[in-house]
Design brief:
- The chain is mainly alpha-helical.
- Helices cover about 80% and strands about 0% of the residues.
- α3 packs antiparallel against α4.
Length: about 160
């Protein structure tokens, strides 16, 4: 049992529901109000990054819905887009975290750059959380693979063989 008191499938369901809720919240709130990436970003870069973030939230929403559907109809291929998208998200968040650390050390903002350090730390926490979610979904993916393989073997053993 990877998630406290939940079975593996319930834990993956919780990851899916949490992911849908988070994606919808990010799309609705930040889609209307925009992003503030902190000091060191031009208005042009902020607008481009805002559009990239909205696209990322939309992709996360779609892959979380596919994950949810993959749990209802136990189909392993529906879990793959979630795994791929969130692995790419980890890479992007890692790059953003490193960027904030570099900005923290190089931008002169008269002592008001602690927000950059806070943003970097919050991204590291997000990365850790998503890595755990990837572990849980991958583990359930492997369980489905094993169950489907065992089912195929049982079906092949039950088939009568004809000989001439």
């Amino acid at each position: 049992m990877p998630c406290c008191c939940l079975a593996r499938s319930e834990c993956v369901l919780a990851v899916s529901i949490y992911g849908v809720a988070t994606s919808v919240a990010l799309l609705s709130v930040l889609g209307l109000h925009g992003h503030d990436f902190g000091p060191g970003f031009s208005p042009f870069a902020t607008e481009i990054l805002h559009q990239v973030c909205l696209a990322t939230y939309a992709v996360c929403l779609m892959t979380n819905l596919l994950l949810f559907l993959g749990l209802l109809v136990p189909l392993r291929p529906l879990l793959v887009p979630w795994l791929v998208a969130h692995t790419v998200l980890i890479l992007a968040l890692t790059a953003a975290s490193i960027n904030y650390l570099v900005l923290y050390s190089s931008v002169d903002c008269a002592g008001g750059c602690t927000v950059l350090l806070g943003l970097s730390v919050s991204l590291v926490v997000a990365i850790t959380t998503i890595l755990y979610c990837i572990y849980v979904v991958q583990d359930y993916f492997d369980i489905l693979k094993y169950e489907q393989k065992a089912k195929r073997i049982a079906e092949s053993e039950d088939k009568p063989t004809t000989s001439l």
